[in-house]
Design goal:
- The protein contains twelve helices and no strands.
- The protein has 272 residues and is mainly alpha-helical.
- It has one domain.
- α4 (66-73) packs parallel to α10.
Length: 272
């Protein structure tokens, strides 16, 4: 029992840390843009809000709460639209912001105290991740690969790999489509879903895995913030403003993509 808990804890943390490294996602973009402006508290609170939602998504994906997903799946296109609108306005806010010389003359603590906008970070992180259904599928796909691979090389995952495989099958039956990006290389053909046992022990392992994966993501975002704040003074102010505005255009692009995806899903639902 202790072996599987430690294994799942380490696997989850490393996975969360590594998979959070790309800065193409809306949370990373938001933290990057605000770190370049020196908004430490906003970055921390945004990362914390995102981590809370990620923990819930991981727990649902791993433990197999398909009833929750069934209800959630029906509102996915509308969540995408809400998320796209929210990201669009966040992008406008970032685009309209501009660094000034006095921002570099103040300490980080002074900047955090003065800027009231920092207080909305927790809410922003929660909303962005909560209205991003692709995060759930990404977590499910990555967890499937990681846990299946770990089990195939002899690591004791406590049966979590079987749980995720069962959940994957159940969700594919609900959606009617295979989730893209799933590689069956590490699936044990002898694993049958009826061997999966939902118990207090597997729930504990699921909670440990969800907590460690979410924590790994938070640690990376925190390190990213520290690095950007520390070295932002090296970059010329004009370049910083250009980078920040470029990040806002990335958010606009993500917003448009979410709307496009939502419309496609709604059309499919109507024609079925």
């Amino acid at each position: 029992m202790v072996e599987s808990i430690v294994t799942v804890l380490l696997i989850g943390f490393v996975a969360g840390f590594i998979f959070s490294m790309p800065i193409a996602g809306p949370i990373s973009i938001l933290i990057t843009s605000n770190a370049l402006k020196g908004n430490r508290r906003f970055c921390i609170r945004t990362a914390l809000g995102a981590t809370i939602v990620e923990f819930v998504f991981v727990l649902v994906a791993v433990f197999g709460m398909t009833i929750i997903f069934s209800a959630y799946s029906s509102i996915i296109p509308y969540l995408l639209i809400i998320g796209s609108i929210f990201l669009f306005f966040v992008g406008i806010k970032i685009f309209s912001s501009k660094l000034k010389l006095e921002d570099f003359n103040e300490t980080t603590e002074d900047i955090d105290i003065v800027k009231a906008e920092d207080r909305g970070g927790l809410r922003t992180g929660i909303i962005i991740n909560l209205t991003n259904p692709s995060l759930f599928f990404g977590i499910l796909a990555s967890s499937f690969l990681i846990l299946s691979f770990a089990s195939s090389i002899g690591l004791n995952t406590g049966g979590l790999d079987l749980l995720v495989q069962e959940n994957l099958t159940s969700i594919q039956e609900i959606t009617g489509d295979a989730i893209k990006g799933i590689d069956s290389t590490f699936i044990d053909s002898n694993n049958e879903s009826n061997n999966v046992v939902h118990s207090t022990y597997t729930l504990l392992l699921s909670i440990v895995y969800a907590f460690s994966l979410a924590s790994g993501g938070f640690v990376w975002l925190y390190i990213l913030m520290l690095l950007l704040i520390k070295y932002r003074t090296i970059i010329k102010m004009n370049y910083l403003n250009w980078i920040i505005r470029s990040l806002s255009f990335t958010l606009f692009a993500i917003s448009l993509y979410l709307v496009y995806t939502a419309i496609k899903i709604i059309i499919v639902q109507i024609t079925i």
